[in-house]
Amino acid sequence: MIAFSPGVPGDHLKFSVSRRVAYCLMPDKLPKRFASFAIAIPLYQLFDYAIEEGNEALVGTRYRLPFAQGYKTGILLSLQDSVSLQSHRIRLAQECLDATPVISKHLIALARWMADYYLQPPGEVLFQCLPRYLRSSKPGKPHRVKYWHANALEPIVRKSIQRRSPKQHQILLAIEAAPDGLNAIQLKLINPGWAGLVRALEAKKAIEWGWAKPPVSDHTSDKLPDLNTGQEQAYAAMNSRFGQFSVHLLDGITGSGKTEVYFRLIHEQLMQQRQVIYLVPEIGLTPQLVDRVRRRFGEQFALSHSALTERQRYDSWDRFRRGDVAIMLGTRSSLFSQSDRLGLIVIDEEHDHSYRQDDGIRYHARDVAIKRAQMLDIPIVLGSATPSLESLNNCEREHYYHYQLTQRPTRFAPPGIQLIDCRNVKLEYGCSNFLLCRIDHHLKQKGQVLLYLNRRGFAPVVMCHECGWQANCLHCDARLTLHQSLNRLLCHHCGFVQTPPSVCIDCGNVGIKHYGIGTEQLEQGLKKRFPQYPVIRIDRDSIASRDDFAQRLETLRQGEPCLLIGTQMIAKGHDYPAITMSAILDADQALFSASYRASEALVQTAFQVSGRSGRGDRQGEAYLQTSFPEHPLMQALTQASYRDIARSITRERKMLGFPPYARVVMFRADALSLEQAIQKLDAIKQCLQSCAISHQVKCIGPIPALMTRRIGRYRGQLCLISADTRRLRALLREVMPDIEAIKSSQSVKWVVDVDAFDL
Ligand code: ADP
Ligand code: ZN
Ligand code: ZN
Known about the structure:
Helix content: 25-40%
Bound molecules: adenosine-5'-diphosphate, zinc ion
Number of strands: 30
Shape: globular
Distance between the termini: 63 Å
Strand content: 15-25%
Oligomer: single chain
Number of helices: 21
Strand order of the largest sheet: 9-10-8-11-14-7-15
């Protein structure tokens, strides 16, 4: 032990230093090595710790670190022989949690680029790149998955299973057909209620489970369809440019066979023993795609999306990392899957907004994916029927290669959009008489009909017609939506719930009315009107259980005539050949939206929704109901292609100096009062104002945000906008150190949003 006696004067300082070191380090084993760690806290810095000598310290492993009064998990980023901190402040890293790194040097570099580009705290960004399961101090478990195998069965037992429970029998047959058995994920796809069925089969000794590594099967022998000329040309051109980093935009109308082209490209990578990341907006919604990937690539893929548990996502991540599977099929965050032989990234529906992460660490998965491809010197393929204006602009500037597929391999082209003028027309549950007649016609012709209404609930407005009182949220600047089935008024922003009042709260009048139509009301109306057909509603409320959701999609797949109604969830990526008619019920609010993005979004929705119909062997029809049929944008939808409309919107943006011709960086603040939020933004503005002028960057605000009060907090924003990215970056580099020092607390919080979506 070191003696703590005061000693000779002058030695005092030395003593107190070593005393503190002794306090937190093992006294007889003073470390000579130091390391820098990332910790997931909202501070713009890394943290230095000492590491015991003798331990092998690997970059990318997690450690338990003493932090403030407790402990935090940190990722080791670099080793160094000395530290800038005074040695008495250095603490000793506790045990290492991983035998091998959980994050590769390449991903660390990508995360550091993200932290720098998106101006986010580096520790938080790094942890964002890990599966949630590994973000705490849980040890990475060895990879073990339960597999069920079939036992030899007495014919009499089999007969009884077959007779008494066709569902159990279906599971049994599937397990028998799989030489390596089936795991939970696979069984769930066969029957969402698999767990009970499997237990019953186990009890009958028909099956049993064991631990196993998933089988690495060869590619299936599923015969590849011949590509048509357009597909073939795009495929060949891409392949010839694939040797290095390159961005390819596959811009093909809905149903033109983009997926088939991705499959070919993926197949090519697999032949070269490379791995592929395949991103889609939302897999839970498209079980069809999963089936398609399985038919083509067997069990060589792992899935990762929000309907899986943390543990399941971790398993997928781990299987991909170990190379047990070659394809990672997943949503946004699957972009951070680790691989040391990644050959290709595919981003389907690249225009989709779900690729933006809007809370916590803000980033755009498409843009980060492009950076990742560049760092690895590999190709990346973006695909969409309605590419974002950003991507089209990048093609124009020859940053991306551009390929177009203008025809469907099936017989019929996507239908043109026809407007239904609903001025002075009485609507029943949001539908004009003409629309109802068309629906009737298609159902009678054995077609399926898709109706898009982007508003869930029964009615969006509840008010008193005597005094004008409206049911508003107590915590947000928003109306409450009536959900009749729940007999509740709900706020869609904060979840606030209230029982609908029977008399007006202000004047006591009993005539409270609701206005406007939501999907719930539409469903009710259509069920009454077309009682002989199933009505399938798909929105956030109706898919409380995902299993049920898959079953409903199964009804659709069977191709019987039915009505499908829903919010934007039904506009994405589905391929149901029996849909012969689609209609958008209400898109008018987009014409008057305060958001400059609204028209782009409307056009994308219109083309995506209309493109859901006529994919099979019958010509489709597509309608859009509007009270503004003469509006130039509505007119354009009926006459022009997506490309032409996109071009004209882009021209407008150029004139206004908006993205993609400018970059936007938004500082947002929220607090318990608007003054506090604005004050915080004023402080930020102080730091950057003079620099902004010299860099010629426009600074707008601070102003209250569009929806000023949300979830009980008042929100303001300060916007930087510049057509010159370099100047904007230079400005940020100069001012961010000062801004980062501005305190963000629970009571007054500020964040920065680079490439903000809206103004
Ligand atoms: P997209 O991804 O562009 O929406 P898909 O790849 O889903 O288009 O193709 C639409 C439909 O056309 C699918 O049912 C698919 O099986 C079929 N298809 C695609 N390519 C071909 C082809 N070359 N020959 C025949 N059918 C094809
Ligand atoms: Zn009233
Ligand atoms: Zn609310």
